Amino acid sequence: IDSKGNVQPCSYFPVVAGNVKKQHFRDIWYHSELFESLRAFEKYKGRCGECEYLNVCGGCRARADAVLEDYLEEEPFCDYVPLRTKRRLAAAVETGKKTDEQLTKQGRS
Predict the structure, then answer these.
(1) Cα–Cα dist 105/80, whole Å
(2) Are residues 44 and 56 in contact, defined by beta-carbon separation less than 8 angstroms?
(3) What is the per-residue pLDDT across 35-66, written as a single tens digit (0 to 9) for each?
(4) Secondary structure element (H or E) that encloses residue 19, with its range
């Protein structure tokens, strides 16, 4: 909460969810579109959306927003490869099929 009463998830994330001078903090926390979307892990994209550690990590939404212009995108500085992705890649290698990522890099999306 800044000096003007604006509520943000963190000081590095310049999106305002509401203002405590205009509404109760509880209402902002539980009912603002921003905080509801941050709690909706199924809407997270990229590696974060597939990651088995999402519910304990969550990634940095401020960095995702700053770098990828979408706070629901994957954490851009995380090097972890989710287990689901590893399994999908291993299966593709085993069957000799090209992954979507390989096809995209070759311009065949």
Answers:
(1) 21
(2) no
(3) 999 999 999 999 999 999 999 999 999 999 99
(4) strand 18-19
Domain boundaries, the chain: 1-39
Q: What is the pTM of this model?
A: 0.75
Q: Helix (H) and strand (E) counts for the chain? A: 6, 2
Q: What is the DSSP string of 35-76?
A: HHHHH-GGG--HHHHH-TTTTT----HHHHHHHHS-TTS--T
pLDDT digits (tens, 9 = 90+) for 73-82: 999 999 999 9
Please, which residues have CB within 8 angstroms of residue 94's CB and are 6 or more apart in sequence? none
Nearest 10 degrees: Cα torsion 21, 8, 40, 55: -130
